[in-house]
Design a protein that fits this description.
flat; 92 residues; mainly alpha; 60% helix; two-stranded parallel ribbon
């Protein structure tokens, strides 16, 4: 439950429905405190994930930016480089 929710807006290629749903699921897990809801809470949990995914999609469709689209592979490489740099600076 410690994963970060990744930015999804302004990427080339655009975020997929699966990526938006995964972010929605992570968000609902975080605010509910449930990794997997009980049977009693399953319907409310699933509905919340669906609603958050829908709202997130509408948000991204409505946003405008003058910034150039970011490339997923380039951003992933930058993140790996930052991680490696932080590991090399760690005491030990």
């Amino acid at each position: 439950m410690c994963r970060n929710i990744r930015p999804l807006f302004n990427f080339d290629p655009p975020a997929t429905a699966e990526e938006v749903r995964a972010a929605a699921l992570q968000f609902v897990r975080k605010i509910s405190g449930f990794q997997k809801p009980s049977k009693a809470n399953e319907a409310a949990f699933a509905a919340a994930v669906d609603e958050v995914a829908s709202v997130a999609t509408r948000l991204m469709e409505g946003l405008e930016t003058a910034a150039p689209r970011r490339n997923r592979d380039v951003e992933a490489a930058k993140a790996r480089a930052r991680f490696q740099a932080s590991r090399s600076r760690a005491p030990g």
